[in-house]
Amino acid sequence: MTTDKEFRPGSNGHSISFQVQPESTVQAADKFCDKVKKYGHSVCSVETLKNRLPILKWLPKYSLTDVQSDVIAGLTVGLTVIPQGLAYAKVAGLPPQYGLYSAFMGCFVYCFLGTSKDITLGPTAIMSLMTGTFAVSPVEGDATYAIILTLMSGCVQLLMGMLNLGIIVNFISYPVINAFTSAAAITIAFSQLKHIFGLKNISREFLHMVYDIFAHIGETRIWDMTLGLTCLFLLFFFKKLRTLQWKDENPDDVKLYKRIARKFLWLFGTGANAVIVISAAGVAAGLIGLNIKDKLSITGELKAGLPPFRVPDFTLQNGNITQSAGDIFTKIGAGLGIVPLLGLIETIAIAKVFARQNNYRINPTQELIAIGAANIISCFCSSYPITGSFSRTAVNSQSGVRTPLSGVVTGGLVLLALYVLTPLFYYIPNAALAAVIISAVLQMIDYKIILILWKANKLDLGLLLITFISSLVIGIEYGILVGVGLSILMVLYPLARPRIKYTTTQEDILVVQPDQGMRFPSAEYISETIIERATTGKNNKSVIFDFQHISTIDYSAVMSIKKLMADLHRFQLQVVLTNVNSTISVDLEKADIPGLMTFSNIDKASHQLNYTEPTDIAVIHL
Amino acid sequence: MTTDKEFRPGSNGHSISFQVQPESTVQAADKFCDKVKKYGHSVCSVETLKNRLPILKWLPKYSLTDVQSDVIAGLTVGLTVIPQGLAYAKVAGLPPQYGLYSAFMGCFVYCFLGTSKDITLGPTAIMSLMTGTFAVSPVEGDATYAIILTLMSGCVQLLMGMLNLGIIVNFISYPVINAFTSAAAITIAFSQLKHIFGLKNISREFLHMVYDIFAHIGETRIWDMTLGLTCLFLLFFFKKLRTLQWKDENPDDVKLYKRIARKFLWLFGTGANAVIVISAAGVAAGLIGLNIKDKLSITGELKAGLPPFRVPDFTLQNGNITQSAGDIFTKIGAGLGIVPLLGLIETIAIAKVFARQNNYRINPTQELIAIGAANIISCFCSSYPITGSFSRTAVNSQSGVRTPLSGVVTGGLVLLALYVLTPLFYYIPNAALAAVIISAVLQMIDYKIILILWKANKLDLGLLLITFISSLVIGIEYGILVGVGLSILMVLYPLARPRIKYTTTQEDILVVQPDQGMRFPSAEYISETIIERATTGKNNKSVIFDFQHISTIDYSAVMSIKKLMADLHRFQLQVVLTNVNSTISVDLEKADIPGLMTFSNIDKASHQLNYTEPTDIAVIHL
């Protein structure tokens, strides 16, 4: 091939000369060795150790004022996570204590590995729903499936972190996540309505569940409903206290007693869950003391004490049910991919929000490693999959947390509760826990986005609605797959059918400019469309193929260019390329296409095509 | 937002004015109705009918000379497909007659629906291997699975044709198809070696198969091997006859007897399979006549006559085995997607090659409909999945075929063979059929591509080798998935991590130019990288974000631009956009980002940023 700089009219176009010389094999090998050395060096450095164990960065600077803040924040988060954990475990289809089993080890591990001071790991609404969807054990109340899912999610996340595959998350678009979250919140809220109304035998599948609730509404237990609705109302009221804005001209003028009162209201709002659950348990205990039994559905007996620290079971044996690890893996199926990805998305999204709010930087890869390690180690304590919790991270941040050490305080409080309080959990009414969940998940529903997208981007709105509806109709686990699949198709389509701009010069030459890369999905399409354009219409036209917007090519593109040249040559037409960048030039040169010519711009190409007969320039042998 | 044309220095940047007005809802509805009308009109036109039933185009012009050519071509292809069908059925794990059951109906259907005169549908090596891989019935010699796979493949292909989804094929790159084809050929060739050597109890899985063949080589049956190797040698020799090139100065000078002799040699080469199989059957029959039995493995008894025309069974019942349609679907699994796609790729690829060679045009969508319908109707005659055969299409083309009517002749000959010849098939030696298969598939292996890709594109070479090796090691059905997955990742990666060009102007303003679109996979990455660049280094810099190479945006991109502006505003820095095209302008205007400014080029933007203090221009409320 020839570039225009060396082009001599009348030559046969075969002289090869090029600015960018491909590097020799020896040079390439040297470069590779250098890279390996550098990589080896960087892996062993102190900086890398600090990046992998962020605690080494902040612990040496730790001070006494930090302790005070971290302890207060840790205790506040602990008071939130205990009632939430007991409640979420029900969404996961497990006995309440598993919510607490999942609430401490993640905090401990994150303290060593996390890069955000605010994040607090533990059970969340979405992860609980996913566990209840993918890890359903055939034995009532058995957690074997959930624990295996925790281990596998951790391994997948850790692997993704080490291989730097966090990039996958970028392919799940915002409307999809938004629709999925709203659908999950609605599914969870409906699943808790049965506890509020005290209904039995309600299906787990969303549409059936809604039908069952309406069909059985006559069987509502009046005591459960009264308590449930009261709790719900009080929770909404108390939570408002936390977000109250006081109108003061000058913050310094506010009197001390006022400030104490406000701080108290805030604490009350933040600890609302705990207050409600304790009060409801008190009511239930009182009723039992008055011998009014069986009116309220209560938690009942649960296994007391700390969970055993042991290697999880990989097989399930119970009565006449025996399932191997393979059986369990097959049943969890797509959950082994979806659950770790969702965990990852939740943590990274939350970490980014608070990092921006509090002006520090997180390291997404390290976050991935931290959450992976947290899941792996947590599964030894019978935990179900955990991730970052938005509501508790907000509480942590507002409580003035300074370092991830607050997580140790939170985890310690949870352990204490497990050790001391389990006998008292007996009295907690199911309706109170349901109220805790409903008030938490309703905040996750974002209906404003519909109006925003209606104005801004209808395609994204369509994606959102399809994801949302399919999540509710065919199931939350398939809905997200539908959404991700569709959004990937939406980015793939233009790769296969790029927009191509055609212009005809005064000299009746066709100038073709595709708007993006020429790789295998589009290569054949581009060349075939060009052939069609060039050979239909009044006159056949020679072609200037402009590479301005094409930054890389692959072998399919090279083949297509060859084919394009051969096909047009049969019509006595020519093709020349313009604006070819240096990378592509090297690739084309290697492919050794006879008779191929490139020019630096369209004018030069056009001039060349005008004053040379096709047969003068090159004989194309393909 | 403001464009630079309306920009008045000192204004607050909020005045909205725009060239491209978004269309009103009424206008949009009118447009939609027009489209629907046009579509309705086009669906009912004669042109559409002719496009859907291409026989209506060529049959009215059919002449007597066409008949002669089509009959000769049809008979030649028939002579090829009968031995190939008997042989391929073994690769599919079915009794030999199923190869013939699959060889006629496709030709009949294609005659009505096909757009290529050369293509001939029927059993092929790849489809047979896929049937033998995905549709393995638990009952020896039972075809229920294969027939269901045919029906489902047909439905998937027809649906893809009607929904215009043939575009999916573009995402399977050439190196992947090439590696898959070579690996399939090697797998098939090895699977036939056992028949050449007369070995028993050889595993179906490639690595085990190779091991077993070497381990059992001592049990070779000498008569089978002698016959098999002889057939193989003769086949290679005869097939060379077909491709002989005669060196003559002037074709018109060649004497008649020479021309007849040459035509005879060509015919002999083309009919080599039939000649070899008939001769080998003669030898086997002679040996049995001489009472030399059990020396040669022969085909033995097979069901005589035509297959019944009936609705296929959806359940399998045999002895104590009962399987429902659901069981069978689950077992076929990914085959329900892979088999129709491969069938489609094979047919379209072949059709394109011959359309180019013989200078006509095919309609890919109609080809998809034709092959889908052929599979659906074929399954009523107990066919396994069929597609276009490269070798027989070549024979058809070289025999001078004029229209798809030749397929009717081919199909007729196959029916005749089934009706009359089945008793004679008894004597066909297995080794002879194995030789037919091996000589056919070895042509599919393309080793030259390795050297070409080594020179042209190492990334594609890596993809080819990984696909090839994984096809052989973990199985042909997973190998192609690995290849397709990797090649899609290769096109997706640049979407998430576009290359970004940074330049700093003399006035210390950062100019940022991403090399491709800003959509959800890359939006956040781009805005975060810009923030990092703008706020690190000696001085913080304001940013000119150049949209030259960005042709569309989505909601994620809008959000990222908002975030970028808010984050840089905290550092007292500004962001302005340049070279924004009209589509994006409309999207940005709808999103209503306060304080956003666009300029037609970098110079104007740079001038503006230089002479205005940040706070003068816009207060950003996000």
TrEMBL record, chains A, B:
Record's protein name: STAS domain-containing protein
Organism: Patella caerulea (Rayed Mediterranean limpet)
Keywords for this protein: Membrane, Transmembrane, Transmembrane helix
Membrane-spanning segments: 145-169, 176-193, 213-238, 264-288, 332-355, 367-386, 406-426, 433-454, 466-493
One Gene Ontology MF term: secondary active sulfate transmembrane transporter activity
Membrane topology: Multi-pass membrane protein
Keyword Membrane: yes
UniProt KW Chaperone keyword: no
Pfam families per UniProt: STAS, Sulfate_transp
Matching Gene3D superfamilies: STAS domain
